[in-house]
Write a structure and sequence with these properties.
The protein is an alpha/beta fold. The chain has 2 domains: 125 residues, Response regulator (Rossmann fold, 3-Layer(aba) Sandwich); 70 residues, Arc Repressor Mutant, subunit A (Orthogonal Bundle), CATH 1.10.10.10. Helices cover 57% and strands 12% of the residues. It has a 5-stranded parallel beta sheet with strand order 2-1-3-4-5, sandwiched between helices. 29% of the residues are buried.
């Protein structure tokens, strides 16, 4: 899912600005979607690949401002990286946008290379996020193949326990613990205890994993 053509969404009420940025992005091989207002953007179905949103700060009429859209996307769990552009020099707004995770805040007029660099950074950020999500998804799928006993051993290994300690904790022989541990490691395609720790950390929800073992 993290591979494929990137999409750049450009939201600006100035047609010349959005078409100019759109042309630059198309020249660099990106898919481009243009919007005159934040209301228009909110009706869009997001593309599945990596993306970046180039967003003006202010819009006429009742359309949400750029900061309001940023807030709304965060609240609804849409993690698209945002590059803000603005024709108004407002330090407070720029600081707030960056605190909320914006990739960049560029005052108009900006150089072509500045906007292209910011967009590239945003797309790479999104690509890395998607790669992490893919890795977590694959890890969860492997964990789901474990038996309840194998999941228990996985969690005990993550606590730093060796086979003898695991056996004592579970009330089984050391040989039995080693057999279950070997099967667990083979299913997870892991070789060392530290890899088990990293796997659980990557999933981020050890309590859920533990609950699944009960």
């Amino acid at each position: 899912m993290s591979s494929g053509q990137a999409t750049v969404y450009i939201v600006d009420d100035e047609v010349q600005i959005r078409t100019a940025i759109g042309s630059l992005c198309e020249e660099t091989g990106h898919q481009v979607k243009l919007f005159a207002s934040t209301d228009d953007f909110l009706t869009e179905t997001m593309s599945p690949g990596p993306s970046c949103l180039v967003l003006d700060v202010r819009f006429p009429g009742t359309s949400p401002t750029g900061l309001e859209l940023q807030r709304r996307l965060a609240e609804t769990g849409v993690p698209i990286p945002i590059v803000f552009i603005s024709g108004h020099s407002d330090v407070r707004v720029s600081v707030e946008a960056m605190k909320r995770g914006a990739v960049e805040f560029l005052p108009k007029p900006f150089r072509e290379q500045e906007i292209l660099d910011a967009i590239r950074h945003g797309i790479e950020r999104d690509r890395r996020r998607m790669e992490r999500e893919d890795a977590v998804r694959e890890a969860r799928q492997r964990v789901e193949t474990l038996t309840a006993r194998e999941r228990e051993i996985m969690l005990l290994m993550a606590e730093g326990l060796v086979a003898k300690q695991i056996a004592a904790r579970l009330g089984v022989s050391e040989v039995t613990a080693k057999v279950h541990r070997a099967r667990m490691m083979r299913k997870l395609e892991l070789r060392t205890p530290i890899e088990v720790v990293r796997l659980i950390a990557s999933m981020g929800h050890e309590s859920e994993t533990r609950a699944g073992a009960e």
